């Protein structure tokens, strides 16, 4: 698991169109390996040539930084997942106990 | 232990029942109902009366001050006041207090959870000047107790005796614990800038009731850990849930906005609240994960989804270089 070179929080790996991208859980910065920027640029130009463009696959999108939502560097990646789950299950016992 | 506990439950039920309707009136009461039964708090209800037996090792003077706080008119509308009733005839092994019945948060309806009301109550509590000398808020002491409980449970658990505290989850909890400043581990007084506010000390959704039931205003209950200390501690548990991904961002925003709107002093009124919340939220993450691992060991089961989130949060805390932790780590 990588650590962010800027804020030292943990980075998570996301796969976008076959390109591995590391995003920091803390500052949301993105780290690209050698050649990955070129891969993305190439994908982008291919994308632009398609008509009409297909919508991007949502499950592959890396999470955008929510505006003005402060969180600690050690916070969980705040992107979907757990919350829908929680709403379905109702509360955990945890929210009601010491 | 079973016998003792059963006898406590019986005695509390009898006491609550005796007070719930006048003597020599026809009794149509339901049997007393056990609301909680733990060594640190056994709570039994009969009619509109709730009787609570506190922990056997309770500091009785400190408890008396905490109960007096709940009864103080300056805390009316914030804390549920106790019932004034004659003390039990014989001294009991565990101190007993009496309370009016309130309606708790509905555990089946997350949308109706009173996040804003809880935050407003905390802000008003934190803004109230302590009306008389009070013991320290016990949040850090509870966190220390949880970590000790985890250590003991993992040592006692025959199934993990070979690995013991090499369990990665337990090691994460201990690493997160060691990175906390001494005051947050209950080993030193809180720094002056973090001390002095009236605090609840153990906030969660089970600590709110509507009184009078079912439609009265929300009030805070359970004074066992209340006292003076860092008001950010009372925000630490929701903050820890949010950081772990357990509390939805919109619920956290509701809670935080309401706290700020009510003038709560634990966080700055604008900007990033995390410099103030970081240490308490870490401590409560560690505490919650420690309790979860202790329960899992005792019940010989794996952590559930929510417990797993808190354990993962501890693992992230443990990966942060200590120099990033605010304040001295010793």
UniProtKB/TrEMBL annotation, chain A:
Segments spanning the bilayer are: none
Query: Per the record, where are the segments of Pro residues compositional bias?
Result: 52-69
- Domain of life, per UniProt, equals Bacteria
Disordered: region residues: 46-98
Biased segments, Low complexity type: 70-80
InterPro entries associated with the record = TF_Znf
Q: Where is the Transcription factor zinc-finger domain?
A: 3-41
What protein name applies here?
Answer: Transcription factor zinc-finger domain-containing protein
From TrEMBL, chain B:
Q: What is this protein called?
A: Phosphotransferase
InterPro entries noted in UniProt: Aminoglycoside_PTrfase, Kinase-like_dom_sf
Q: Which Gene3D superfamilies match?
A: 3.90.1200.10
Domain Aminoglycoside phosphotransferase positions: 115-266
Q: Which domain of life is it from?
A: Bacteria
Print the organism lineage: Bacteria, Bacillati, Actinomycetota, Actinomycetes, Kitasatosporales
């Amino acid at each position: 698991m990588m650590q962010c070179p800027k804020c030292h929080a943990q980075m998570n790996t996301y796969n976008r169109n076959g390109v591995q991208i590391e995003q920091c859980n803390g500052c949301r910065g993105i780290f690209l390996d050698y050649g990955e920027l070129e891969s993305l640029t190439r994908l982008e130009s291919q994308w632009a040539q398609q008509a009409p463009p297909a919508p991007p696959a949502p499950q592959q999108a890396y999470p955008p930084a929510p505006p003005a939502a402060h969180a600690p560097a050690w916070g969980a990646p705040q992107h979907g997942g757990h919350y829908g789950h929680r709403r379905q299950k109702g509360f955990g016992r945890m929210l009601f106990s010491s | 232990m079973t016998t003792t506990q059963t006898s406590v439950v019986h005695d509390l039920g009898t006491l609550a029942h005796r007070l719930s309707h006048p003597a020599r009136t026809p009794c149509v009461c339901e049997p007393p109902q056990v609301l909680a039964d733990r060594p640190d708090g056994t709570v039994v209800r009969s009619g509109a009366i709730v009787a609570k037996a506190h922990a056997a090792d309770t500091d009785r003077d400190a408890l008396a001050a905490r109960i007096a706080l709940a009864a103080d008119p300056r805390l009316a509308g914030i804390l549920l006041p106790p019932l004034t009733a004659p003390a039990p005839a014989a001294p009991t092994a565990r101190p007993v207090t009496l309370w009016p019945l309130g309606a708790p948060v509905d555990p089946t309806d997350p949308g109706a959870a009173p996040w804003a009301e809880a935050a407003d109550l905390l802000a008003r509590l934190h803004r109230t000047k302590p009306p008389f000398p009070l013991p320290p808020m016990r949040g850090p002491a509870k966190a220390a107790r949880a970590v000790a409980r985890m250590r003991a449970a993992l040592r006692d658990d025959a199934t993990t005796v070979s690995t013991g505290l090499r369990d990665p989850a337990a090691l994460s909890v201990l690493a997160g614990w060691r990175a906390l400043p001494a005051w947050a581990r209950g080993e030193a007084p809180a720094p002056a800038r973090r001390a002095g506010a009236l605090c609840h000390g153990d906030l969660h959704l089970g600590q709110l009731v509507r009184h009078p039931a079912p439609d009265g205003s929300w009030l805070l209950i359970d004074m066992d850990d209340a006292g003076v200390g860092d008001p950010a501690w009372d925000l630490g548990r929701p903050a820890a849930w949010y950081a772990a991904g357990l509390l939805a961002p919109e619920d956290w925003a509701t809670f935080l906005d309401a706290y700020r709107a009510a003038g709560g002093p634990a966080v700055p009124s604008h900007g990033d609240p995390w410099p103030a919340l970081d240490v308490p939220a870490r401590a409560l993450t560690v505490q919650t994960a420690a309790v979860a691992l202790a329960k899992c060991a005792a019940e010989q089961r794996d952590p559930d989804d929510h417990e797993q989130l808190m354990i993962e949060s501890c693992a992230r805390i443990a990966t942060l270089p200590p120099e990033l932790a605010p304040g001295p780590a010793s």
